[in-house]
Amino acid sequence: MFAQYIQLRGWNVLVYYNVEPQDFVEIEDSLRQIDCPNKDIRSAFKVLSKSKNTGFTFSNSDYKMSIVCISQTTSASEFVSTAVHEAKHV
Length: 90
Description:
By secondary structure, the protein is of the alpha+beta class. It has helices at residues 24-33, 38-50, 76-87, and strands at 2-8, 11-19, 55-60, 65-71.
């Protein structure tokens, strides 16, 4: 996994790429820092641990912050598809 921090017009986005289940401790910590509810954290873990070619986004307008997670993907086209889909949630 690797992470990238992006600033967009007063909004901050933390993107985690190539996420595997063992990476979730770091992601959970980031989600908790922006007050992500426990039910959404559980949902993120479930989504990201079960399959490839998937993602999860949580945003908190009070913090002006989004956290985007993109799982491992099976091809470059699947990566682009997942990244574009998750970007729509920011």
